[in-house]
Amino acid sequence: MSTKNPVVIGLAAAVTMILAGCSAANPREESPPATVEAIAGSPVQQVRLTEQAMHRLGIVTQEIRAAKVTEHGRPGSHLVIPYSAIVYDTDGSTWAFVNTAARTFVRQRITVSAIEGGRAVLTKGPAVGSAVVTVGAPELLGTEYNISGEE
To answer: What pLDDT shows up at residue 74?
Structure first.
């Protein structure tokens, strides 16, 4: 008896087919839509997408900005990102995918101090001006973890 969640496996298979430009009825062999490369000395990997995969996933990025935010009764300047940029790891840790080069993304650990509506206030994260993925981050996480639905 399998203990794998069929919904998760089905979702992972769908993401794989979307990245590859396939449908369940018409899978086709093509060059990989994404490459995942180890980063020396880092537990995360770099994800590089083809132009077609970028388009299919609808990847959208937004720059991290600094904003004056009052926390615990004290005003200060903090990093702010859209809440949609946050991805959660299996252990609950928080991350954001940073756009490091054309069609290239690296997951970076962030520390969220508050969530205010559609934005997250960070005490630790990428530098101001860095572009983080706001649409498509969960698919990048699945790509980095090599979730293909075939396990």
So the answer is: 81
How confident is the model over 30-44, as pLDDT tens digits? 689 999 999 999 999
Residues 18-44 as b or e (16 or more Cβ within 10 Å = b): bbbbbeeeeeeeeeebbeeeeeeeeee
Measured between alpha carbons, how far is 17 from 119 in angstroms, rounded to an integer? 31
CB within 8 Å of 93: residues ≥ 6 apart: 109
Contact of 100 with 133, CB cutoff 8 Å: no
Separation CA 114–CA 133 (nearest Å): 19
What residues pair up with 68 in beta bridges, in sequence order? 77
Query: What is the spatial distance between Cα 118 and Cα 80, in angstroms, rounded to a whole number?
Result: 10
Please tell me the pTM assigned to this model: 0.78
Q: What is the 3-state secondary structure (H, E, C) of 48-76?
A: EECHHHHHHHCCEEEECEEEEEEECCEEE
Task: Please give the domain boundaries of the chain with CATH numbers for all domains.
Answer: 6-144 (2.40.420.20)
147 — pLDDT class (breaks 50, 70, 90): confident
Tokens of 37: 């490369």
